[in-house]
Amino acid sequence: MTRPEDDTPEGATFLSRAVVLLLENRMGSAAVPLAERVARTAETHMGPDAPKTLSVQANLASVYDQVGEHRRGARLLEKVIASRTAQLGPEHPDVWDAYNNLGGIYLTLGEYEKSARIVEGLIAHRTKELGPADRRTLMARNNLAVITRRAGRRDDAVTLWEAVLPEFEAALGEDDTDTIAVRAALFQARKDRGGTGRTADLTEVEERIARFAGSSGEPTQEAVAALVERATALRDQGRYDEAVTGYREAIERGCAALGPGHPVMVSARYRMAHALQARGDAETALAEAEEALAFADRSLGRLHYETLMAAASVLSLLLRLERLQEYQDLLEMRLADVIERLGFGHPLVRALAARRASLALNRPVRP
Question: Strand, coil or helix: what is 1?
């Protein structure tokens, strides 16, 4: 099916299933050539505006977004939305599914006003078509809070999460994974804002996540992710030994169920590195962060979000240990990637850039 003579509608249908599987497993780098080929084949055999062509183009946009080509993905999705709107009308679910994905890309690009406008429209549409208690409506409201927080409006984000959390609990249940995620986001937003009642909130988060993870039977991605979030909550409270134990449990269970290169496992390792560093075990922290980066490179690709965060963790630890000079090749190779994700204004990026400049000039950085 990968030979030139197999560029047929049947071949495109088969390969598009592989693209979806790769996307779902956060393996966009492997999906790029297949997704581009499927899109070309569909356009050639079915026409540029055929529903199947638009569907595979939407998948290709998601692939571009996943590998870091966000602007390219956004432009392609804008074309898909225009074609679907002309064919199906502005209220068709396929149009709004594409809008939902476009809002996520705008968020990644830092274009918060565009992202918020899309999600506000999505909330109105889903409330009308699905009802206010539908999971997809509630998740759109959660997404608006995420955008608001990323835009720096922390008080407004807290207000949005405080309003929607009781509705998540009433509609989906207190131990639903999305409810837990919203509760954890509200806790973190309150913490970032410097609000009160943090300990009680954290205890509630830990208890609910622990109940969910403990009742899940066979380890699933959701159960392992819940264990990771519980360990992160412990870390944020300063309970570093308990956090490290929690991360190790999540990694042990997750590697068996998901594989060591799964995004959740990469995230668990570099988060554990932060907990190890905070309790004074910087060398072990560096080893864990390096292992996270190695697994991410192998399984997720260099531009995957979790790969970039693992690289940032390694570089941050090397900076603290004053060992960047030993890793100049790594610094040169990864700094541009980290800048792309965090922005040059981020304190870590600025410190790394200053250190890189000092190494290039072979002189120390002035304090």
Answer: coil
Q: CA–CA separation, 95 vs 132, rounded Å?
A: 20
> What one-letter code names the amino acid at 25?
N
**Could you give the CA distance from residue 40 to residue 35 in angstroms, rounded to a whole number?**
9
Mind listing the pLDDT tens digit for each residue in 167-210? Answer: 998 998 877 778 877 887 787 788 777 654 444 455 555 555 55
- In this predicted structure, the answer to whether residue 214 has a pLDDT above a threshold of 70 is no
Rounded to the nearest 5 degrees, what angle is found at the Cα of 260, between the Cα atoms of 257 and 266?
A: 115
Measured between alpha carbons, how far is 42 from 40 in angstroms, rounded to an integer? 6
2-6, 55-59, 85-89, 313-317 — which is least confidently predicted? 2-6
Name residue, tokens 């668990």.
268
54-67 pLDDT tens trace? 999 999 999 998 88
Q: What is the pLDDT of residue 218?
A: 58
Other C-beta atoms lying within 10 Å of the C-beta of residue 131: 11
Burial of 87 (0-12, 13-18, 19+ CB in 10 A): middle
